Amino acid sequence: MAFVFAVVAGALVLFATERVPVDVTAIGVMVALLVVEPLTALLADAGVLAGRLYVLHEPGDAVDPVAVGLSGFASPATITVLAMFVLSAGVQRTGVIQILGAKVAALTGDSESRQLGATVGIVGPISGFINNTAAVAILLPMVTDLAHKGQTSPSKLLMPLSFASMFGGMLTLIGTSTNILASDLAGRLAIEDPARYGDLHAFSMFEFTQLGVILLVVGSLYLMTVGRWLTPERIKPRGDLTQEFEMADYLTEVVVREDSPIVGQTVHDALEATDLDIDIVQLIRDRRTFLEPLGAKSIRAGDVFAIRTDRDTLVELLDAEGLDVVPDAVVGEAELEAAEERQNLVEVVIAPGSELVGASLRSTNFRQRYDANVLALRRGGELIRQRMDRTTLRVGDTLLIQGAGDSIDRLNNNPNFIVAREVERPDFRKSKVPVAVGIVAAVVAVAALTPVPIVVSALAGALGMILSGCLRSSEIYDAVQWDVIFLLAGVIPLGLALEATGGATLLADLLVLAAPSFPPLVVLGLMYVVTAVLTNIISNNASVVLMIPVAAEAAVQLGANAFAFVLAVTFAASTAFMTPVGYQTNLFVYGPGGYRFTDYLRVGAPLQAVFAVVTTLGIAYFWGLTP
């Protein structure tokens, strides 16, 4: 038990600080639990320890600890979540969300109230039927464009987008991976000891929909009133991205003089020869504008370069390279978009699981790899416009990128990024809209109305997306957020170890002892609050794995309804409003909204308090507190 608690403590620190990616931490947890028994057996044989440590099973039973440790990969929860990612991608590829966005933009106009109402009203219901993380990734460009066209600050819409997706995720079993994982854990506990846990069982498709609807209504009213007042306008409503990123002092045009030492060199060689912080954004020659890739072009006298650099570096550059500033040059979005009729300037968000997380623009050779320039980087409310190539990238970082239309298309199709504004895509499979929507509806109906388990229904739906042509077979693996899959696979054995060693029982004992005179309703609320706080610090899936065995055990000791306590943990783990790191959707909007860390606490803490009360009372009313 002591060893497992040490692993839990180490995992919590790593989850909270993100010194390593959360999925790597989860796999590290799994490996630690797998190696401890054979390693301590060797030490016991050598006389160093009194005996081996058992953390995944009990001494003398016939259980294979390796099978238990690897069970997260075979868990129905893990497979269901994987299938749901494929289903969500199939819907996305049809372009149905973009069609919906165009109709919404026509109705909302420049009214912030209508834009906010449309954002909350769309993402909430959608998040009940496709994974809410995927829903935000799909809708983020639509909502950003909605703000742009209506001259509204995107800050006023993007945090509500994230929060409303969490409300919607609690409408059905498949709304969020947390629900699926909690259902699997509850079902396993019920099968292992039905006499002990009474009415505890896996969730059905619409098990908690009635409470989910109440929370969706309450949360939406909050966002439209108190939340709207509390949500800051961090990014001013501007139509020009260069103004939004405050690039006026960092973009200019220079012309190459006849006596310049770089005449005859390629652009690549000229850039390599200098250590100055400069990016060549575009080349203007003979009234034609050229974008990346520019590296192979030979520099001629009279060439005009649009460059990104600061004023001090510009002075050094002019002296060293034989360049002159173009008088009265203004380099804004209009000038950067002039090279082609297609969109050349976009914001992109570093997605969860991106291979760029933990790397830098320099180490990934971003310019050469994607034929695009990064003009600025926004991390929450912080703008970085100098030496960006040395900055270690994080999930949620927003890059202002300029490149040719083909380069923008590649970024839009790349799972490493979420393009934060709509890019016109000719490859949407609009004819497949009825098929994709029908497949999702069939998955829900089969799981809700027949004995077919949700994991089987979801896998069949994923296969249907491929066979019907909604999703190509080559797109399947890019559709899955593998960091979430490995996170689930890694943390599931941790919950099993807590049970096998008695750790869950000990934590439940301490919880019950801490509130001996409180009625079960108060302890239920306390369980919600503890889980919510934990979820705002670490992964929602990790918190549900840790807290569900404790909640079920605490209910047994109080003589209360174990299902009610497990449901409180599930709802709390799926609604993390107080930090940007508590839930992936909060990170999605952190950069594009220009938020500060404290903004989530300011807007989310009152909402979290309201949900604690409404959820606790709702569970007590609908399911009761007695077995």
From TrEMBL:
UniProt keyword terms in alphabetical order: Membrane, Repeat, Transmembrane, Transmembrane helix, Transport
Topology of this chain in the membrane: Multi-pass membrane protein
InterPro entries xrefs: Cit_transptr-like_dom, DASS-Related_Transporters, RCK_C, RCK_C_sf
KW Transmembrane helix (keyword) present: yes
RCK C-terminal domain boundaries: 238-323, 333-417
Domain of life, per lineage: Archaea
Ranges that cross the membrane: 29-54, 66-87, 161-182, 202-224, 435-467, 479-498, 563-583, 603-623
Pfam families: CitMHS, TrkA_C
Cellular component aspect of the GO annotation: plasma membrane
Main location: membrane
PROSITE patterns per record: RCK_C
Localization: Membrane
PANTHER family, A to Z: BASIC AMINO ACID ANTIPORTER YFCC-RELATED
Protein name (Swiss-Prot/TrEMBL): TrkA-C domain protein
